[in-house]
Each structure stands twice: as structure tokens, then as C-alpha cells.
Write a structure and sequence with these properties.
This protein is α+β, with helices and mostly antiparallel strands. Helix content is 23%, strand content 22%. The protein starts with a strand and ends in a 14-residue tail after the last strand. It binds N-oxalylglycine (OGA) and manganese (II) ion.
């Protein structure tokens, strides 16, 4: 296995291109350790030509920890679901493998992925890795962009670094949904518990490398102890800073690519494509995190 940097910037490695390994085969401990070391060094790894089906993708994913059930999966009705619960359906398809209609609720929900985010940042213990496998890709568009939040942190001036270090943010799916225009009351009553804000440190320290990173996501609604408008304006400034071109890499998908990213040190977003007419079938497995980033508020 060999890893070559795909990104060239003065802030260190970010996206690595991995060759010489077939991930559909059973991994040895040494191979798993080499991939984890690559993840710690780069934060995003790209593998080409990985002919996964759902079972081999899930088996490979389990090498890195326990699987997480995505919120989309949890909230979906079984009759709307195309894939098993452990597999987040990042496609534009319905159960008959037809592109969803313009006003399809599942489609509209999925548009939230177009906002810069870190997966499951609305959970008290947010996700570690996400593994996204491209099965069918559209002829144009539909890239995924990644932002290096270690580099974004390091590039801040010292005064801002000191200011943000102790800050704690509140994340909820309700905020990102509000941003793309879903009315607040629109989320089914049975899903109210999934909207309760959780607290996250604005600056995270990677458990292996010790590097600091900015922890931002579309799910942030406020900063604890700040007036909401002031918090949102500041978060917007930080988002703008963190997503400047020098921190961003766009991945142009080919069928059978696998991307693994570390949600603790990166953000990502989906880019537009003609989803009413073209097919994009991507499947995501997600590895649970193992710790909160900030003490949680006691339930009222
Ligand atoms: C995801 C996601 C972006 C994309 O799978 O978590 O945000 O480009 N995907 O589909
Ligand atoms: Mn995502």
C-alpha cells in the first residue's frame, strides 16, 4: 500500500491517494493500522477501484470501530428505505431505483448535505470516520469538497485562537434544516428528541496527533453564553475563513472510489448535479466516535 499526497499546500498533508490495496478483502491488523496512520496524517484518504457491495463495505468499515446508524436512516420509514439501516443512502434514488421527484421529502432533506458540515455533529458523541463508496456517478457535477480544519485552525491569528479555545457551541439538526428553509414545526413529533441541541467544543484536539482543529458544522446554532445573532455572525466568519480555497480539496468521483474522512478534523459538502435526470448512487458507512467534546447540559 502506498499513499501519495493529492493536496499541495503549506499547511501539511490533507488528502492522500492510496494505491496497492484491495479493501474488499479481509484486512490484516497491519493493513488496518497503516490506513489509520494514513488517516491521522492526512484526514482524507481516496482509494480507486474498490468494488464493494454493501456487505463488504460494512465488513471493511468495522475494522475502524462500531458502526453508527445515520439520522436519515433512523428517521426514515422502513417503506422508504432502499438500503439496510447501517448504510446511509447518499443517493438520489427511491426504492425502485428511480430518481426522486423534485418535491420528494427525502430528496429535500438530503439537500442539507450541500451545506459545509461534519457528520453527526448534532450527537453528543459525534462520528469518527465516514466511508463513502461511489457505485454510480453522474456525468457532470456531484463532487464532494473537503476542508482541512487543522489547517484552518493553525492559520488563525493568535488572538482569535486564544479567544475561541474555551468556546462551546450548540449543534442541532434543527439549525441546518432551518438554514435550507424547512419550517421548525415541520420535523415530525416523533423525532423531537433528535433535535435537542448538544454541546461541542469549538476547538478539538485530535486524540492521536494532538493537533488542534476548528470544529464547525452547519448544525451550529449558537455559542454557549453568547447572544444568538453575535454567535451566528462569528460562526459565519469562521466558516468563511475555514472554507477558503487553500484549505479545500474537491474530489471528482469515479465509480468504485472510496473516500474515508475524519469528521473530527474536516468538514465536507456535496456539490450540485442534475439529480432529477442523472443517477448518483453513493453509500456511506459511519464509525462512531468514542468521546464527547464538551460537557453536556443536564436535561431539563
Ligand atoms: C455524506 C455527505 C456528500 C456528498 O455522505 O455524509 O455529506 O457529496 N456526502 O454526497
Ligand atoms: Mn456528510
Amino acid at each position: 500500500m502506498d499513499i501519495a499526497p493529492l493536496t499541495r499546500n503549506p499547511y501539511g498533508d490533507f488528502v492522500g491517494n492510496v494505491t496497492g490495496i484491495d479493501l474488499t478483502k479481509t484486512m490484516t491488523d497491519r493493513q488496518v493500522a497503516a490506513i489509520e496512520a494514513g488517516m491521522d496524517r492526512f484526514a482524507v484518504l481516496i482509494f480507486h477501484g474498490q468494488h464493494f457491495d454493501d456487505d463488504t463495505q460494512l465488513a471493511f468499515s468495522r475494522n475502524f470501530g462500531e458502526l453508527e446508524i445515520s439520522s436519515g436512516g433512523e428517521m426514515s420509514k422502513p417503506e422508504d428505505r432502499r438500503l439496510k439501516l447501517e448504510m446511509a443512502d447518499i443517493s438520489n434514488l427511491d426504492r425502485d431505483n428511480k430518481p426522486r421527484a423534485a418535491d420528494d421529502r427525502v430528496r429535500l432533506n438530503a439537500l442539507g448535505n450541500r451545506l459545509w458540515h461534519s457528520d453527526a455533529s448534532f450527537r453528543a458523541i459525534p462520528a469518527k470516520y465516514s466511508l463513502l463508496s461511489a457505485r454510480v456517478v453522474p456525468g457532470a457535477g456531484g463532487n464532494t469538497e473537503f476542508a482541512d480544519m487543522r489547517a484552518a485552525h493553525d492559520a488563525l491569528d493568535d488572538r482569535t485562537k486564544a479567544e475561541i479555545e474555551p468556546l462551546v457551541t450548540e449543534h442541532s439538526n434543527a439549525y441546518s434544516r432551518e438554514t435550507i428553509g424547512f419550517p421548525k414545526e415541520d420535523y415530525g413529533q416523533r423525532n423531537q428528541d433528535k433535535l435537542r441541541p448538544v454541546r461541542q467544543s469549538l476547538v478539538r484536539i485530535h486524540p492521536v496527533t494532538g493537533r488542534k482543529s476548528l470544529y464547525l458544522s452547519a448544525h451550529i446554532g449558537t455559542i454557549v453564553g453568547w447572544p444568538v445573532p453575535e454567535a451566528r455572525a462569528f460562526i459565519r466568519d469562521l466558516m468563511e475563513h475555514a472554507t477558503q480555497p487553500q484549505f479545500v480539496h474537491a474530489h471528482v468521483w469515479r465509480p468504485w472510489d472510496l473516500a474515508i474522512w475524519d469528521n473530527r478534523t474536516t468538514m465536507h459538502r456535496a456539490r450540485r448535479y442534475d439529480d432529477l435526470h442523472e443517477v448518483r448512487d453513493m453509500r456511506r458507512s459511519t464509525i462512531r466516535g468514542d468521546a464527547v467534546t464538551a460537557p453536556q447540559q443536564q436535561a431539563a
